[in-house]
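WARN retry 2 of 3 for item q-0093 after timeout on previous attempt; input resubmitted unchanged.
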Amino acid sequence: MAARPLSLTRRLMAMVLGFVLAAWLVTALVAWFTTEHELSELLDAHLAQTTALLLASELDVPVEDDARPAPVLLRKYQSRVAFQIWRDGRLRARSTDAPEEPLAPAGVQGLSEQRLAGKRWRVFTAEQADARGSAITVHVAEQLSARRHVLLASLRGTLLPLLLVLPLLAVGVGWTVRRALRPLHALGHRVAARSPRALDALPQDGVPAEVQPLVHALNGLLGRVAEQVAGERRFTADAAHELRTPIAAIRMQAQVAQGATQDEERRAALDATIAGCDRATRLVDQLLQLARLEADAVDTQPAAGRDIPTDLTAVAARLVRELSDAARARGQQIRLECPPRPVDVPMSAALTAVLLRNLLDNALRYGPDGGTVAVQLLPAQATHGVRLCVEDAGPGLSDADLARLGERFFRVLGSGQSGSGLGWSIVRRLARLHALQLHIDRSPALGGLRVTVDWPRA
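OK item q-0093 returned
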């Protein structure tokens, strides 16, 4: 089972407090090493200065046989500080807690660390001969535990208050983060409380600047969804209206065939029924094609095989063969002009066939009996990519009709041909999906409509 992701509030609190704790640890380490270094320098200087003072005072003292004890001073760290004065190898003076053996071995000068009776000492040793030639050695030592105690006491006064402030800081950060995210939570509640049918824009009053891009994106999405829903409602209503017409014609012709008394009348009614079924079937096929194209437009990932190169010449030749029988029934001719070598386009074979079939079907449907439909394929040139031209000998279209060409269920009145107007919608949708350049004008050779489709250059 996947772990539940942390909320934004907890994530921000964890990140801020983690950063503060890391900064506190780094500060503590830097303060530790810096204070330890400076404290060692200071205490070493005190050791050296005390040694120099003891050595100078011993040079002025006459020789005595007995060792002189140090005075007892009641101080906190007195038991951790010791000194010894040696003259010609004999102990002349020492502090109360100093051992009787030398604090440092013979020959050691300056600073050193020694271990005596299980304790570690920091020792400064100085040696000098007096006027009588006697060798005077002075040891001044300090326990390292005393230095550590002083170091901890110094840091405790600095870092402990900061450590105690951390819980208060956590509470303050939590309160600040929750208060800062309150508008975001309020926006989430407003979105959750909206009706599924409410597609109006979200209000932006009181929305923080960091959240405004999200609100803009949501409003844009809601606008597109509203537009798509409205379009689908219009599409459903228009499709129901268009399907009602062939179904009513089929029913009427079936009733005529049912009540016919002569074979010829019955046969004509049945032929009209079959033609109405073919019309309804074509309308349903076009609706399905358009629905698939709408689904491809919503999908951001390219469909499998969409950009596989397709030989446009082979697709055009196959469609011309398939439509030749229907064209000959009206005395029409399909003329195909294409280069001998393949002409590849970045489009799947199925969609290429859908595009060209709709163009040819419109050209044959609205062309006159005995007319010609010209199909020309041009390979990629320096100025454009692969070009497809389909021309017919029909009456053409006015400027007003050209502007509306491609609207769903739009048909030119007075053409005398049945149709749903979806063919051009499919062609324009394919052009948008594959970035094709679509141009429609009058054919200079045949006088009807000329449709030019340009695929982009590779």
